[in-house]
């Protein structure tokens, strides 16, 4: 009797999550899979079209091709650079400096604000042809291009904005660096190891789990970037699809053109791409991620 | 060598400070521009305005026809308040169940919850929208608030980790004293889990305040617009004609995030370090 009361209590507390999981996650996942094989505009019933959406995606949708290319470029440039900056600054901050708290606060502010519309608005202005970025370059005698309205450069303004937000990644690195036992460095110093050697043989190996973690999280988030691209391009992904990040194109397909079946199929392709990238990370991790407790 | 040692901290401070200023420069420039007369915004790169004006704040606040920015702030605050309440209550309930109560299929549900962690929201987006469309919730606050009462996997996980760290003996002595599950949850576990609850509350506030995508697809009546939507509308309608006012409203729009950040900084750093939230 007592046992069943406990079971009941368990499910009572779990109920809100359980309802949400079934109605807003599991159900929609299944429905989304179904919708991806249909033509659906929200107002009329979905019409089964078999693999048509997927065939169009892979063969006929040149905008999607552009979008995937732009997204890859964005992810493959911004993620490594963001992590590199974060790690570099974290190492500098970890040298036992005073005012660590202050610096951490300063560096976190871009991460805090970066997702807001306000910062995208600002970015649009900073990287304008006449913007302050070009005016700074002018001081060094460099004539900068129109970073936002020139299709060759527009993606770099988005990449720059993403790198600018390295603060949250840096804080995780900083926490990881603090975990490395100081004695290891002392022992290495006694053995005559220099800074570079200590970095390569102690810091890097012991930090690989944190690098792995940051890489995975940042990668997944980057593939889903939306607000920056939407605000900076005025909702178009332009000029000439040069800032048409995947999420933005998916939004346009689903909510501007009301091709919701196609948008669902696009969501599954995105999931497949993200799964492939994280899958590779996980599979290769045993070759490069070092767990000091010998793995869990 | 000793000279190097003496110089090193100063050099480091110099670099770190320099990079920091460079990073914050655009934000500072935006703040200062919002106080500069229009003709000075793009001619002066300096941060201190040579003459102050509050005109942009007035122009921006009343810049849209039929609706003031105050309305957007009110809507955003309302959404955040309900979202925070819903998330903290429902997530802590689920976390309590996972961490403290033995019941059938517990491990399965927990595994399924972790499985949804990395799932991009895009996959559930269209069906969710369809559901809310069918029940007539589109263009109301309901699709943005009601789901928050069904717990968020991230915060459940965060809280489970935290609650597991609270000694189990407390549960036993509470049971001996005749406390039921609800009393244990409400009177003992919740107060002790305050740091985790605070972290969840702060992150939920931030995420809701900046949730441009959700608000964009669900809200279309300008009277229901939130700050991000209002700002974007203002940018589109004012365009390049009044950057001062756009900047002024942009500055106001980030003030709540900054206040919450500085108030809850302790929880912030902990939260990021343990969950990797916020990119």
Detailed description of the structure:
The complex is a heterodimer of chains A (296) and B (279). Chain A has 13 helices and 2 strands, in the order αββαααααααααααα. Chain A is mainly alpha-helical and 296 residues long. Chain A has a single domain, classed as MetI-like fold (Orthogonal Bundle). Chain A has a two-stranded antiparallel ribbon with strand order 1-2. Chain A is globular. Chain A starts with a helix and ends in an 8-residue tail after the last helix. The radius of gyration of chain B is 24 Å and the shape is globular. Chain B is mainly alpha-helical and 279 residues long. Chain B has one domain: MetI-like fold, CATH 1.10.3720. The longest helix of chain B has 32 residues. In chain B, α4 packs across α8, α4 packs antiparallel against α11 and α11 packs across α15. Chains A and B meet through α1, α3, α4, α5 and α6 of A and α1, α4, α5, α6 and α12 of B. Chain B: Keywords: Cell membrane, Membrane, Transmembrane, Transmembrane helix, Transport. Chain B: Pfam families: BPD_transp_1.
Strand content of chain B: under 5%
Q: What is the structural class of chain B?
A: mainly alpha
Shape of chain B: globular
Order of helices and strands of chain B: HHHHHHHHHHHHHHH
Major sheet: arrangement of strands of chain A: 1-2
Number of strands of chain B: 0
CATH fold field value of chain B: MetI-like fold
Question: Please, what is the average pLDDT of chain A?
Answer: 90
Largest interface, C-beta closer than 8 angstroms, per-chain residues: A-B, 94 and 90 residues
Report the CATH superfamily of chain A.
Answer: MetI-like
* CATH class placement of chain B: Mainly Alpha
Main location (chain B): membrane
Domain ABC transmembrane type-1 (chain B): 73-264
Protein name (chain B): Carbohydrate ABC transporter permease
Organism (chain B): Cohnella thailandensis
């Amino acid at each position: 009797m007592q046992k069943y009361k406990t079971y009941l209590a368990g499910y009572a507390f779990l109920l809100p999550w359980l309802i949400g999981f079934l109605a807003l996650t599991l159900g929609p996942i299944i429905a989304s899979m179904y919708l991806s094989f249909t033509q659906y505009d929200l107002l009329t019933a979905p019409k089964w079209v078999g693999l048509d959406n997927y065939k169009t995606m892979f063969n006929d949708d040149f905008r999607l091709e552009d979008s995937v290319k732009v997204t890859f470029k964005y992810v493959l440039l911004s993620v490594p650079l963001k992590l590199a900056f974060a790690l570099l600054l974290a190492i500098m901050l970890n040298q036992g400096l005073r005012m660590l708290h202050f610096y951490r606060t300063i560096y976190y502010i871009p991460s805090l604000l970066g997702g807001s519309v306000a910062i995208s608005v600002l970015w649009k202005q900073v990287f304008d042809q006449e913007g302050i970025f070009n005016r700074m370059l002018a001081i060094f005698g460099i004539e900068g291009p129109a970073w936002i309205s020139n299709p060759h450069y527009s993606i770099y303004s988005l990449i720059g904005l993403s790198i600018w937000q390295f603060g949250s990644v840096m804080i995780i690195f900083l926490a990881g660096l603090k975990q490395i036992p100081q004695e290891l460095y002392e022992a290495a110093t006694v053995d005559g190891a220099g800074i570079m050697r200590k970095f390569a043989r102690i810091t890097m190996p012991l930090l690989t789990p944190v690098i792995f973690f940051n890489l995975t999280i940042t990668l997944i988030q980057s593939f889903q970037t939306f607000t920056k691209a939407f605000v900076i391009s005025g909702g178009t992904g332009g000029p000439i699809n040069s800032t048409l990040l995947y999420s933005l194109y998916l939004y346009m397909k689903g909510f501007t053109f009301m091709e919701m079946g196609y948008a669902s199929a696009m969501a599954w392709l995105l999931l497949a791409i993200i799964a492939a990238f994280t899958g590779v990370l996980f599979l290769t991790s045993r070759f490069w991620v070092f767990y000091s407790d010998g793995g869990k | 060598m000793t000279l190097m040692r003496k110089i090193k901290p100063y050099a480091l401070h110099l670099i770190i400070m320099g990079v920091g200023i460079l990073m914050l420069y655009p934000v500072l420039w935006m703040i200062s521009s919002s106080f500069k007369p229009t003709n000075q915004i793009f001619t002066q790169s300096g941060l201190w305005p040579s003459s102050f004006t509050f005109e942009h704040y007035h122009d921006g606040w009343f810049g849209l026809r039929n609706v003031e920015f105050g309305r957007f702030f009110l809507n955003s605050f309302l959404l955040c308040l309900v979202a925070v309440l819903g998330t903290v209550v429902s997530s802590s309930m689920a976390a309590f169940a996972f961490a403290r109560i033995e019941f059938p299929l517990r491990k399965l549900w927990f595994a399924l919850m972790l499985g949804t962690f990395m799932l991009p929201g895009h996959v559930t987006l269209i069906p969710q929208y369809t559901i809310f469309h069918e029940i007539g919730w589109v263009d109301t606050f309901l699709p943005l608030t009601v789901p928050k009462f069904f717990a968020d996997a991230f915060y459940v996980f965060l809280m489970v980790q935290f609650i597991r760290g609270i000694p189990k003996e407390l549960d036993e002595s509470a049971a001996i004293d005749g406390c039921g599950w609800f009393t244990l949850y409400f009177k003992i576990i919740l107060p002790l889990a305050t740091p985790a609850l605070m972290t969840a509350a702060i992150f939920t506030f931030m995420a809701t305040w900046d949730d441009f995508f959700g608000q964009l697809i669900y809200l279309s009546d300008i009277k229901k617009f939130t700050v991000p939507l209002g700002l974007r509308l203002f940018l589109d309608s004012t365009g390049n004609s009044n950057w001062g006012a756009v900047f002024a409203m942009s500055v106001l729009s980030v003030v709540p995030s900054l206040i919450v950040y500085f108030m809850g900084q302790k929880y912030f750093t902990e939260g990021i370090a343990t969950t990797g939230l916020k990119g």
